[in-house]
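Cross-posting from the modeling subforum.

Setting up a comparison between two proteins and wanted a second pair of eyes on the formatting. Protein 1 (sequence, then structure tokens):
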Amino acid sequence: MASEFFITFEDAPGYIKQKNKLIENAKKLPTFRKIVGVHQLQFKDSSKEGWEYDVRLFFEPTNIVIEVSESSQKVYADMKIYIENIRKILKLRIIDEDGGDVNFFSQ
């Protein structure tokens, strides 16, 4: 069963302005596999079998949804780096499905 986390932004207009850049930066991660539609990116540890993807990012109008389908240290490491890079330009909060703060994507 997949777990979902939400990256929310204090500055929603800033996120909207940076959204295309954030998508392009995510596509540069080593575990990036493909983009589906305009706003769904899939990531996969190529050394593992199973699901077509381990993690998907959905770039919603006001937030980013992280859907984790399969645990992978490589994808997890990429997500940590990616989120830390976003933190350099936008103030964000990561919450779980219940609205609680999530810290394991932080360094």
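Protein 2 (same layout):
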Amino acid sequence: MTATSGWTSHGWWYGPDPEPVEDRPDEQAKCGGPAMCRTCKAESGQVVEPRIPEPAVRVTAYTVSCLPVDHVGYKKLSLTVSEYTPGLWAVTRNGFFYDQNENRYSESTVKADEEVARDVLFTLTSATTLAKRLAPNVKIGGRTVASALARAER
């Protein structure tokens, strides 16, 4: 591909040849020319990079707990409601998925068994409702939410 020279529609010179003094456009846009302007860059034959859109922010997980956020046991005695696939949410804790009957399933079981997957994936509303129902009864090593709260009050 041979490089050509010329003027952009915005009045900016491009190409390997020196900018001619004659036939200079009467006006020049304040766009910055081929180095900064998409139109000038395209007209000069340069590759125009695609515009990168603004980053999108999407909530895909919620923490559900009966403990205050600043409680030392908050993370360990909490459940997570997370989007497993678009539009389907799961209630999880320590890598296990919960169904409506409070049964726990490993992620490998959920991935391998479609019936189990149907039992542990919910709408956001249903998953949040289940997590709120389970949250008061979360235990770790025999320690309950109630005992964690009682210990914090001492």
